[in-house]
Amino acid sequence: MPVLTEHRLRLGDRHVTLVEGPAGWGECSPLPGYLCDPAAAWRAAEEAATLGFPPGVRAEVPVNALVEGPDFDAAALTGFGAVKVKVGYPGDLDVVAAVRDAVGPAVALRVDANGAWDVETAVTRLHALSRYDLELAEQPVESIDDLARVRRRVVVAIAADECVRSPDDARRVRDAGAADAVVLKVQPLGGVRAALDVAEAAGLPAIPTSMMETSVGIAAGVALAAALDDLPYSCGLATATLLPADVTSAPLVPDARGVLAVRRVEPDRDLLARYAEAIT
After folding, report:
1. Cα 24–Cα 65–Cα 219 angle in degrees, nearest 5
2. What is the DSSP letter of 152?
3. pLDDT value at residue 138
4. 240, part of any domain
5. Which pTM value belongs to this model?
6. Angle at 176 between CA 172 and CA 177, to 5 degrees
């Protein structure tokens, strides 16, 4: 059994465990309040550290910008081919309208409700939002059955996210006609290879997305995106700057084209020491 070294860190109020092994580095950092089995997150970290990532078919992946509320910086959206807007709060339609106005008609625009709506609310809100030429809506309702009900009643494409945590879930989405795409997060699914199995079971376009990890965790999402046969959507992996700090002086952030390079990340030893010392 390979020898693994754990590095337990605290970045602001976020607890992160990095795992160092013969194949590199992995990350276990379940997000408080988000559906992610800690055992699955550990499997993902262990896979990265012991097996590395499967070979990819591309050297870079497009990523989307993220808007989480009304106080967004329009200049920060420049260069991205897609923007995702979090919705499910009062005034969200106005935010989507402002973002569409800021980025123009050529940029793909998607929304993400994280399951906040019931079926009737989702149908009503998506009808209203459809005027902004949405690319898709991520997880407007919680369950697979409700996703199918919404999808039958709206023109906006639907993506399944939190309701998919296994190949069986993915097959249920496929068989129910519940979604047009599936969002894949490496930690909740138990690793890059497990996420590829979920994508195959779904038989739908896949959108690799982060769980607000450090650059080590984001590298796993990028590896997943690189290994997919087809990648028709921009990926939700431009999130390294959303943490208060990172573990490397060369963070995995997009270039001016809204693209991430496919590469491994090596943490800086001095940063590991700095954030390890913050643990109480």
Report:
1. 5
2. T
3. 98
4. yes
5. 0.96
6. 120
Strand pairing category for 259-261 and 60-62:
antiparallel
Residue 189's domain is classified under what CATH number? 3.20.20.120
β-bridge pairing 5-11 and 14-21: antiparallel
Share of the chain above pLDDT 70, in %: 98
Crossing angle for the helix pair 167-176 and 144-151, nearest 10 degrees? 30
Q: Return the axis-axis angle of helices 119-129 and 92-103, rounded to nearest 10°.
A: 30
The full length of the chain comes to 280
Describe the strand order of the beta sheet including 24-28 as a list of residue ranges: 5-11, 14-21, 24-28
Domains in the chain, number = 1
Per residue in 98-146, pLDDT (tens digit) is 999 999 999 999 999 999 999 999 999 999 999 999 999 999 999 999 9
Contact 219, 264 (CB under 8 A): yes
User: Which pair of tokens denotes residue 261?
Assistant: 């390079």
| pLDDT in the model for residue 279 | 54
Domain membership flag for residue 33: no
Catalytic residue IDs: 86, 185
